[in-house]
Amino acid sequence: MRRKPRIPPSPLPQRDGIDPFRVRLPLDGAWSTVRDHLVERLAAGPGVIDTMLREGRIVGADGAAVTPDAPYVPGAWVWFHREYAAEVPVPFPIGIVYRDEHVVVADKPHFLATTPRGSHVTETALARLRRELDLPELGPAHRLDRLTAGLVLFVVRSGERGAYQTLFGDRRVRKEYEAVAAYDPAVALPRTVRSRIVKERGVLAAYEVPGGEPNAESRIELLGERGGLGRYRLVPHTGRTHQLRVHMNALGLPILGDPLYPVVADAVAPDDFRRPLQLLARSLEFRDPVTGREHRFESGRTLAAWSAYEEWAGGGVAHSS
Asked: What pTM value is reported for the model?
């Protein structure tokens, strides 16, 4: 078995809470210079790599700038900061439910991605918290969909992140969600929903495979109903992408504000923060793998469609409470 290469520490600091991009030069290849490999591999556009090299913005493990004619060295590492497009600020604060020397439990608002991905980079919970709390090693123990609000566990020290991620991988964290959807007295609740969910890369919506071996399980309970709406407690026993949204839709109870289920809606403008998805990660409960403490945390947020439906439906809710 080939051992994974040891990654040297980054010679570049973070920028705006974002780590520099890292590239390892392949052990086999016919490139004569580092420049030739980067141009072929990164497809950054005409002249971009040449400009970065001339300006000294690509560095090696020793922190020295890679010159435009630097020879290709198999297995070597280079670092640089990518240029990101300007992002529309998400105008809602991140709440801090708990913080100690090991973890930060954040209460994320709707519309804010957990970690950098795609067009959401600097406007993410991770980048914001690194900047605001001055915690450059901060990293997520798990992720929450951009459109879902609620609790996210971050780890302060990179060396301890694996222990907390293992909690989630081994299903030793009890998570509870709340949702607002239509109320249908014909849907018998509580119930446990099991199905096989598939999420294909590049496809926005996940889907269920009829008759497939179940890989997703959710407990769904009705907490209350009024005015044709239901407030639901959702307890996932597995962690498939969009699992709760898919299972609620399968019951004929799509979560209010969902742009993917039952049908994929047209994209909205980046600055449109109306009618947030009515899904909230309400609580996290686990034994801390480092300290041994028993933790239970609850979000302080509420779902607008339950507390002020007319305002939410009219698009007048311009806050994430």
From this structure: 0.90
